[in-house]
Design brief:
The chain is mainly beta and 340 residues long. The chain is built from 2 helices and 23 strands. A hairpin with an 8-residue loop joins strand 14 and strand 15.
C-alpha cells in the first residue's frame, strides 16, 4: 500500500495539497488561515475543539477520534497474527533503552523495540541506522537528568539513516502507544515526546554563520559552509505524537532540520499529531518530497533563516473541528519574530 493510500485509508480527506513548492526568502505562504487561539486552563476550555485536552495551557488533539463516526485508533499499520516465524512481527519484543550520548555506530533492528529516554544524541562522526519495520518510542516521561521527554538529536557531523519500505516503514512514536489503554492521561496526545532534531553544517543567514537550538544541551549548534552536507537519509518513515515543548518554553516539532545540506535525503515521510509543526527548516539547502502532514497543532512546514531547498509533493491535512493559527506553509526571511 502506498503512503498516499495509507493516508486515505486511515485519515479521510486531505484538506490541502501543495505541489512543487520551493523554499526561498520571499513572503510567507499561508494556505490555512484561522485566528482563534487554543489557550486553556482546564479540559473544559477545550470543549469547543472535539477530541482535545488541555496540556501545557494549550488544547492539544487526543487520538480518541476525529468524530463519533470516524474514530482514530492511533495506528496506521495493519496487524497480522504472529506465527513465530518472523521475529520482526513479534508483538512482545524486547525493549532496548537508549539514553545519553551514543559514541559508536549503532544499528536498530526490527526484532527489538527501542525507547528514547531524555535527550539522546548521536555524537559525530557516528551514524544511527534504523532498519525497515523498526519502531522507536520516545518516552513521554520527563527525564530528570536532561529535563526533557524522549528526544533524538543528530548534531553536525553525525548521521541518521532510517530507511523503511511502503509495507514496513520505520516508525517513531510515543511510548504511550506501547502502553496501550492503560497509558496515563487517557492515552496518546500530540506532543507526547520531543521529536527528531537533525543539525547540519550548511549555510544559514544568522550572524556569524551559526545558530543554536535551545534545549539540546551541548549539541544544539548548527550551520557552516557546507551546502552539500550529508546528515543522513529518511525514507518511508512515520513520526507521530512528537513535538513536546522544552522547559524554556520553546516549541518542539516532529522533525527539525537546522542547517541541513542537500545531500541529506528526506523522501516519503509522514507526520501525525505533532504538538507544533510537522517540519521546521532553519537555513540550509535540504530538499523534502513526498511528505504527509496530518493534524499539526501549528504549521505543516515552517522555514526561516535562508532555507534554499525544495519541497515537492506535500499534503497537509487539518484536524476537523480545530480552529487555530495553523498554516500549511509558513516562511520567514529572518528568524522567529521577523516575518518576511
Amino acid at each position: 500500500m502506498s503512503i498516499l493510500q495509507r493516508l486515505r485509508k486511515s485519515s479521510g480527506q486531505a484538506l490541502v495539497v501543495m505541489l512543487g513548492v520551493t523554499g526561498m526568502l520571499g513572503a510567507a505562504c499561508t494556505l490555512i488561515l484561522a485566528k482563534e487561539p487554543l489557550s486553556c486552563t482546564t479540559d473544559g476550555d477545550c470543549a469547543k475543539y472535539p477530541g482535545t485536552a488541555c496540556v501545557n495551557s494549550e488544547c492539544r488533539p487526543r487520538t480518541g477520534g476525529l468524530d463519533a463516526q470516524d474514530p482514530d485508533t492511533g495506528s496506521t499499520d495493519a496487524q497480522e497474527p504472529y506465527d513465530g516465524s518472523d521475529p520482526c512481527r513479534n508483538p512482545n519484543k524486547e525493549v532496548v533503552t537508549l539514553k545519553g550520548d551514543i559514541n559508536e555506530n549503532l544499528t536498530l533492528k526490527c526484532d527489538k523495540d527501542y525507547l528514547l529516554v531524555g535527550r539522546v544524541a548521536v555524537l559525530p562522526p557516528f551514524t544511527m541506522t534504523v532498519s525497515a519495520g523498526t519502531t522507536v518510542y520516545g518516552s513521554a516521561d520527563v527525564d530528570p537528568d536532561t529535563g526533557v521527554q524522549g528526544t533524538l538529536v543528530i548534531p553536525p557531523g553525525s548521521r541518521l539513516v532510517a530507511v523503511g519500505t511502503k509495507d514496513d516503514p520505520v516508525v517513531f512514536t510515543s511510548s504511550r502507544r506501547r502502553e496501550g489503554p492503560t497509558a496515563p492521561d487517557g492515552g496518546l496526545l500530540a506532543g507526547d515526546w520531543g521529536g527528531i532534531f537533525i543539525l547540519g553544517e550548511a549555510p544559514v543567514n544568522i550572524e556569524g554563520g551559526k545558530g543554536k537550538k535551545a534545549g539540546l544541551g551541548p549539541w544544539g549548534e548548527f550551520g557552516g559552509t557546507k551546502p552539500n552536507n550529508d546528515s543522513g537519509r529518511l525514507e518511508y518513515v512515520r513520526v507521530e505524537y512528537g513535538g513536546a515543548k522544552f522547559p524554556d518554553g520553546e516549541d518542539g516539532v516532529s522533525l527539525d532540520l537546522a542547517g541541513v545540506g542537500d545531500q541529506t535525503i528526506i523522501d516519503h515521510v509522514m507526520f501525525r499529531f505533532p504538538g507544533d509543526d510537522c517540519v521546521e527548516i532553519i537555513g540550509g539547502t535540504v530538499n523534502i518530497k513526498h511528505m504527509l502532514c496530518q493534524y499539526p497543532l501549528d504549521d505543516g512546514i515552517a522555514w526561516e533563516n535562508g532555507w534554499t531547498g525544495k519541497a515537492q509533493f506535500i499534503v497537509v491535512q487539518g484536524r476537523p473541528g480545530m480552529n487555530n493559527n495553523s498554516n500549511g506553509l509558513q516562511g520567514r526571511s529572518g528568524g522567529s519574530g521577523t516575518p518576511a
